[in-house]
Amino acid sequence: MSESWRFLDLKVSDAYTNMAVDEALACARGEGGSPNTLRFYMWRPSAVTIGYFQSVEDEVDLEACRRYGIDINRRISGGGAVLNSSTGEITYSIVTADDDPRVSQDVTESYRYLCGGIVEGLASLGIGAEFKPINDVVVRGRKISGNAQIRRYGAVLHHGTILVDYDAKQMFSVLKVSKEKLSDKMIQQAEERVTTIRRELQRNVSFEEVRRALHDGFRRALGVKLVPGEITPHEEQLVKKFREKYASREWIFRR
Amino acid sequence: MDLSEVAVVGKSEFKVPGGKLLRARAEARNHKIAFVQVTGDFFMTPETDLEDLEAQLLGSSADPDAVRDAVNSFFRSRGTVITGASPDDFARVIISALES
After folding, report:
1. Which option is the CATH number for A4-246: 2.60.40.3450, 3.30.930.10, 2.30.30.100, 1.10.150.20?
2. Mind listing the pLDDT tens digit for each residue in A13-72?
3. How far, in Å, CA of A45 to CA of B49, rounded?
4. At CB < 8 Å, which residues of chain B contact A?
5. Taking Cα atoms as reference points, which of B1, B19, B4, B21 lies closest to residue B98?
6. Within a 13 Å sphere around the CA of A119, how many CA atoms are in the beta-carbon half?
7. A residues 45-74 closer than 8 Å to B (CB)
8. Which residues of A are less than 8 Å from B14 in CB distance?
9. Averaged over B6-34, what is the pLDDT?
10. Residue ranges in chain A whose pLDDT is less than 70
């Protein structure tokens, strides 16, 4: 019989809460009182998140974010800057014990295993995707999902985003991806490097359909039973504490 | 005022082939490192090692060989796991920021 993990179904929150929940789940898992968990979430308002080691100044156009009403946050995990669009993606996180035998201590192998749910989920939608080290899932060489992982508190926190739709122009105006000015050529180049579920399927796929496909994909790829659950009162306390950190200028602008 | 004491923070950028992008800001005064910060989209466990490295480099020699040795021996002694870059890549980007 396969092991049971908690499933926290799709919820929409702002960036500060979303990041606080992920850290709270890792912290509570490490303490031993919380189970392994798969969580789905979305962002409202949209937010740029940068990797733990990145500098806001290097990565983000603050004025463009203000204009669009886009929040800015720093993740606890490394990796690159992402525009987490309120209308364009589903984000997921996975939390396990640090010594879980399924999650290899080898970085690439652990990413391959945990990103397997995305590959399986996309396959069930009819999209042939593959894991591409270090931390991407690609379709015909184009990135459809970016992922990041951290080991802390005696837990593994792995999270990532799956593109359903994509606004290259908005992305380029909030992320300083290049010193060049926004040009049609750049947008075209980006569209050759990035793809989305709707683009691959050439239809207006609903978030509900994507959510179901990813849920089943992760269930199969992780080899576990997913049991719908809720955040515990203790985790809720931790969310409050961590949310203050994520909402602070000190955290966001620390590099 | 001695020109060497004018604070000009050097910057550099290095894309690791097949890896991640490293950026450094650094400043030397009297051949000692007076400021150093590395940023980028790499992964490091434990992540606090980067701040510890930066703190340890302050006041140490800005000579390229010394920086290379200091960075490599720091990561080796800590057993830091870096993904998307190597200790030498960190040394390289810091050295070129100091020289810029």
Report:
1. 3.30.930.10
2. 999 999 999 999 999 999 999 999 999 999 999 999 999 999 999 999 999 999 999 999
3. 33
4. 19-20, 23, 37-47, 50, 81, 83-84
5. B4
6. 17
7. 51-55, 58
8. none
9. 91
10. 1, 178-187
